[in-house]
Design brief:
Length: 188
């Protein structure tokens, strides 16, 4: 689990290293607040997203199901700065479907880890394939990275888009096109 005491001590060291006084009124509670924040934003490190998909329903539904515009927040493992955006998931069940909140929980658990967007996208797709064994899965993630907007190149509004396709979404261009049209709000 997350060791909040170690985080607090490390933050005190950082505050001193930047030339500030950790005893100053505005900074006194900062180490504790950051430790609590890290416990929250990295909570997915100790959760298994597969557990969320184990409860489902046999519906013999074999048509595409799309979960669109699932918001997420994650932390870039390179700079420990946030990246955030939207996840779109499509899958073609092999009969078994899951409740809408389950996909959002999968996204949240995987996002709440030190992460790379490419890995986030792949892990969401692979988790769904492993547990639901659908005919196909497609995941598109669009995100803005603060490591690119507030530091370094400083290009706010820039987005990175990643995708992962499995099964029918990879094999059939028409299936992939239908998914992309649906997440863009167009009629397939």
């Amino acid at each position: 689990m997350i060791d909040k005491d170690k985080i607090e001590k490390a933050v005190v060291s950082i505050i001193k290293a930047i030339g500030e006084d950790p005893g100053r009124e505005g900074l006194v509670g900062t180490p504790r607040r950051i430790a609590e924040m890290y416990a929250e934003v990295f909570a997915g490190s100790y959760q298994d997203p597969k557990e969320e998909l184990k409860v489902g329903f046999e519906e013999e539904h074999h048509e595409m199901v799309v979960f669109k515009d699932i918001p997420f927040y994650s932390m870039c493992e390179h700079h420990f700065l946030p990246f955030y955006g939207l996840v779109h998931i499509g899958y073609i069940p092999s009969g078994r479907v899951v409740g809408a909140s389950k996909m959002a929980r999968v996204v949240e658990i995987i996002a709440k880890r030190p992460q790379l967007q490419e890995r986030l996208t792949t892990l969401i797709a692979d988790t769904i394939v492993e547990v639901l064994q659908p005919q196909g899965v497609a995941v598109v993630v669009q995100a803005e990275h603060l490591c690119m907007t507030m530091r370094g190149i400083k290009k706010p509004g820039s987005n990175i888009v990643t995708s992962a396709t499995r099964g029918l979404f990879r094999k059939r261009p028409a299936t992939r096109s239908e998914f992309l049209a649906l997440i863009q709000g167009k009629q397939p």
